[in-house]
Amino acid sequence: DGGITQSPKYLFRKEGQNVTLSCEQNLNHDAMYWYRQDPGQGLRLIYYSQIVNDFQKGDIAEGYSVSREKKESFPLTVTSAQKNPTAFYLCASSIATRGNEQFFGPGTRLTVL
Amino acid sequence: AQSVSQHNHHVILSEAASLELGCNYSYGGTVNLFWYVQYPGQHLQLLLKYFSGDPLVKGIKGFEAEFIKSKFSFNLRKPSVQWSDTAEYFCAVNARGNYQLIWGAGTKLIIKP
Predict the structure, then answer these.
(1) Nearest chain A alpha carbon to B34
(2) N or C: which end of chain B has fewer CB atoms below 10 A?
(3) How far A41 CA lies from chain B's nearest CA (Å)?
(4) CB distance B16 to B113 below 8 Å
(5) What pLDDT, on the 0 to 100 scale, is given for residue A1?
(6) Which residues contact B76 (CB under 8 A, 6 or more apart)?
């Protein structure tokens, strides 16, 4: 089955620790995205990548970092500099030539204690 | 800056009632338009999309949306809702040629059986 996998589904970390969220896709999509979803705020773009070894900041990149070493993988690190990291994180991918219809993974709920 | 406005944050309807969820965007150029749905515990998934052509688009599960360019609107409709339509609905807009989707805050729809 083609799709996007995110792991883990739930993640708990202590304040001050960095944590890395995994995102893998086997759709052969060039573009990948990380969003943060908070109640009543919709989806906010953290980072996106159009191609391997290249990525751009989204609207709320502060306190986050990403890498794109392989087409299939786009991990997100939530650093200790992120002031309010507890949230639901969604990874997506798309083929830009198809009007940027994005396909989503199941998400990771991060709770920082 | 581009923005997307969904007018209703919470909507409660009885089964068989008609549904219309509003979506307005602010961008003067050519756009692609999307409605996504997030059922409880499930992935965010595409409900319908508009790229060009007939401004009345039909999606899955009996949903449709009409693009009215002069009003910068893309309202979602369904003539008769079911309990299984309980979900959160998101409108998103993509400026043609741009990788980013701009998202509305979402509308939580609850259908009373």
Answers:
(1) A101
(2) N
(3) 5
(4) no
(5) 59
(6) B19, B20, B21, B23, B35, B47, B48, B63, B64, B65, B89, B91
